[in-house]
Amino acid sequence: MAEVALETRGLTKSFGGFTAVKGLDLAVRRHTIHALIGPNGAGKTTVFNLLTKFHQPTGGTILYEGADITREDSARIARRGLVRSFQISATFPHMSVLDNVRVALQRRLGTQYHFWRSAKSLGALDGEALRLLADVGLSDAARINAADLSYGRKRTLEIATTLALDPPFLLLDEPTQGMAIDDVDRIKRLIKRIAEGRTVLMVEHNMKVVADICDRITVLQRGEILAEGSYAEVSADPRVKAAYLGGGHG
Amino acid sequence: MSTTLRIFCLLAAAAAAVPFVPGLIYPVFVMKVMCYGLFACAFNLLLGFTGLVSFSHAAFLGSAGYVTGALMIRFGAHPLGMPAAFVLGVAAAVAVGFAIGGLAIRRRGIYFAMITLALSQIVYFLAVQFRWTGGEDGLQGIPRGSLFGLDLTSDTTMYYVTLALFAAGFLFVYRVVHSPFGQILQAVRDNEARATSLGYDTDRFKLLAFVLSAGVAGYAGALKALVFQLVSLNDVSLHTSTEVVLMTLLGGVGTIFGPLLGAALVVGLQNYLATIGDLVTVVIGLIFIVCVSFFRRGVVGEVLHLVRRRAERPSEAAPERAEPAHRAPIPTVPAPEKAVQA
Predict the structure, then answer these.
(1) CA B43, CA B36: separation in Å to the nearest integer?
(2) What is the pLDDT of residues A40-65, one digit of tens each?
(3) What's the ipTM?
(4) Helix B202-228 × helix B81-104 angle, to 10°
(5) Residue among A106, A82, A81, A79 nearest A92 (CA)
(6) Pairwise CB contact (< 8 Å): B191 & A106
(7) Which of A210, B1, B25, B236 is a good FRET partner for A23, with 20 to 30 A between their CA atoms?
(8) Would the CB atoms of B186 and A92 count as touching at under 8 Å?
(9) So what CATH class is A1-81+168-250?
(10) Torsions phi, psi for A231 (to 5 deg)
(11) How far from A139 is each of A89, A98, A131, A153, A231, CA to CA, in Å?
């Protein structure tokens, strides 16, 4: 299965007596947008935390581009190109919008430990940071602090920061959660656009977003896969209707 | 040149004039402020720019002081005695910093603070037990020696050497804050999980910051040992570790000049209110309560906050960047072991 970018085999996570993820076999194909949906508590975010090693799996293996990454730490996985976003907006609030993006770009200079060098040396990255901001429509906000952005624009900044790493694989945790309708639409189009040439795995509650842009959907329930397929297939599945969609959305 | 550096040049120029007006202000007092100011700057590098609360800074100040002092007592007469003792003192603080930081850095918030506290108490214990530290007596009558032919026994010469070393130390901290490394530190302070998800090993950044901070604290300690020709148990005590917290918060945590002002205020109060005896601690305590109740950004922090709000008028937009001081947040002790949301 050469087209599979990320794969889990029997991935399991227990918290004390509670098993949040049970023997998950997930395969995300390269250059697709794959959605992970399911009712609250189904284990979606736990799966994300396991994939990016913010939690250690209790059992099973994770393969990324054929390499076993089960034992690697979070930062190493990010450096492999598997970059995540967070459910709540994750910016650096007291840094300017430009600096937020620049922090992500900075790693490629290899000077991140250079405490003796002037920060002016980072000016070389400003052009690219501004280009990334222009790309997502945040040019006008480059100099203000991330904390002063609206919620929707914070999430946009987060995507720009993630894109700065030019990651081949993006993990987006509820990118449109808590957004106004206009923002949802904008983020949806942005994700669709940035997924070009990349693989995206996203947790999403907004069925319209899932239906519009996701190629493949995995439905989780109580830590296990309930159904998998295209939106049409999944939404027609009676088990999914019963467990999650409740018939109303299908 | 940035505004910060211009202000610093003015301050340094004013400090350089002090020996000419000894009636107005004691040079020895200014040297004390410079030593503690540098110490507070070191602490601020960690609390203000990395977001770590440490209760071990006296261990760094003191261990450097003891090593420099003990070496000066034995080899002070040698022409290279003073620079060698100074460098080895700083190296000792770096080593102690690496040991304490290496053990504590994986923990978060209050646990981190408590581990640094416990380990610094071990350093205190060792200072009491070792013979070369002089135990309860400490080290007294430490010779100042000479630096590249300059005889440091003269208070005026010592004053200018102290000023030069202080300026170098301050500019070093300034550079660390405004370096590529400093940018990542800010990111770690603002949102550690996000910094990790961008591929940065945050523990390594925090450890390096901790060691650098320990080194600067040691630099202040070595300088202080030479200036006062004295190292005592007080220098490695918990009291000193908490005093530096006070200085930093009072002046303005996360600002460049705050720790200097805080150190000047605390040292000044201790000096000028010395006549009221132990009541000084009550006065300082009250000031601290007022500070955390009404101006939590500290003196410099509040001033910068006001300036910034004025500057936010559109006509004066786009001020000079690379001045993160006034953007620094009021630090809070992070929640213990904040779990990633499941």
Answers:
(1) 10
(2) 888 898 999 999 999 999 999 999 99
(3) 0.84
(4) 140
(5) A106
(6) no
(7) A210
(8) yes
(9) alpha beta
(10) -60, -40
(11) 19, 9, 8, 11, 35
